[in-house]
C-alpha cells in the first residue's frame, strides 16, 4: 500500500462528523448535533438529503468567529436545550468538527457540566459525545466513533446472558436492504437480533402519518443499554472492531469479527456461525437462497472472468468489493482507499493506493468497470468507462438505500446488477450469424473482392 499524494484534487472521502451523524440516525428518537459552524452541518445535510431523498434531522451549534476564539461551550449548551425543548428527542448525538477540535477544548468535561447543570431540563434525554474531527478519518471512522461512544455512555455492565439474543454491529456501508436481509437471516435461526445502528427503521423511505422532528425507528436506547445481555456479538467490517472491543470490555460479551458478508464464502461463514450459536440446523429457505447464489455465479462468471476493475472506496467497502470481484474471476487492477489507517487494506486482493478520485481517473484507463460512489461519474465520463455506484453518496440514482449486497440474496443481486452493466456496455451483441461459422462462410465468400482480370 502506498500514499499517492499530499493533496486531494477530486475528493473521495467524506468527513468523520458525517459518518458519526449517519450512525446516530440509526437510533430511535435521536438527533445528531454537529458542534461547529453552520457550513459544516449544511454540507453533511445536503449529501444526506440527496442520497436518501428524505427529510434528515440534523442540528448545529452554529459556531461563529467570536465563539470559535473564546470557546463554544455556551453554543453547545444552548443548542442542546433548544433541541430538547423543540424536538424532544430520546438521544442527542454530539459530533465534533475540526473547527472546535483544533481549539483543544475539553468536550467531555464541558458536556458533563452541562448535563449536571441542566439535569431537570434534559430529563430522560441522553446526550452522547463522539469526537470526530474532520482533519482525520472518514465516514467509517466517524461511524465507528459514534457507535463506540454510544456503547461507552449507555451500555450497562451485566453478567446475565439471553441465549436467544444476538448483537450485530452493522458497518457504515450497509444499506437498508442489507440490514433487512441480515435481520431475516438471524431470525430464521430463532435468534432475536439487536442491530446497532439500525438505519432500516429510520431511513427506509417510509412516510409517517405525522411530523416527527427526530429520527424514527432504529435501535432503541433501551436496547443499547442492555446489549451485554446477549449471547454473542457479531461485528461486520474491521472498523467495527473498536465498538466490539468496547462492548466486551464493559460487559464481557464475546464477539466475532467478520470482514465482509458479501460472497459465497463470506455468507457461508456467517450462516455457520448462526447455526453454531443457535444450535439449530440451517433452514431450508436459506439453503435455497444459497443454491440460487451458486446458479447466479455460474450464469455470471462468463461476464466477470478476465475483466479488469478499478475501485475507489472506504477501506472496508473496498475490501468487500475487491473480494467479491476476485471470487467471480475478475481482477482489481486499480484500488484506491480513502484513508490509510484500516488494517483491512493489507488483505485487499490488489495493490492499494491511498488517494482520491483524481488518482482513480489517472490509473483506470483501459479497465472494464469503475466502482465508486456518485462523485466518480466525472471519471466515468472522461474515460468512457461505465461506473457501478456503491457506498455513500449516490445522489444521481433512485433507491440506493434499498440495494442489497449482503449474504446470499444480496450477492446474487449484486452479480446480476454488475453483469447486466457489463453486458450493456459491450461493444457488440452476439447474433446467430456471428456465432454460427457455417452461416458466416457464405457471407464471407460473398464479401470477398472479385479478382482482377488478367492482362494478356
UniProtKB/TrEMBL annotation:
Annotated spans, Disordered: 432-456
Listed Pfam families: Oxidored_nitro
Pathway of action: Cofactor biosynthesis; Fe-Mo cofactor biosynthesis
Domain Nitrogenase/oxidoreductase component: 15-422
Keywords attached to this entry: Nitrogen fixation
Source organism: Pleomorphomonas diazotrophica
Membrane among keywords: no
GO terms, biological process: protein-containing complex assembly
CDD domains noted in UniProt: Nitrogenase_NifN_1
Descriptive protein name: Nitrogenase iron-molybdenum cofactor biosynthesis protein NifN
Record family assignment: Belongs to the NifD/NifK/NifE/NifN family.
Family annotation (Gene3D superfamilies): 6.10.250.1090, Nitrogenase molybdenum iron protein domain (3.40.50.1980)
An MF annotation (GO) of this entry: nitrogenase activity
Ranges of Basic and acidic residues composition bias in the record: 439-456
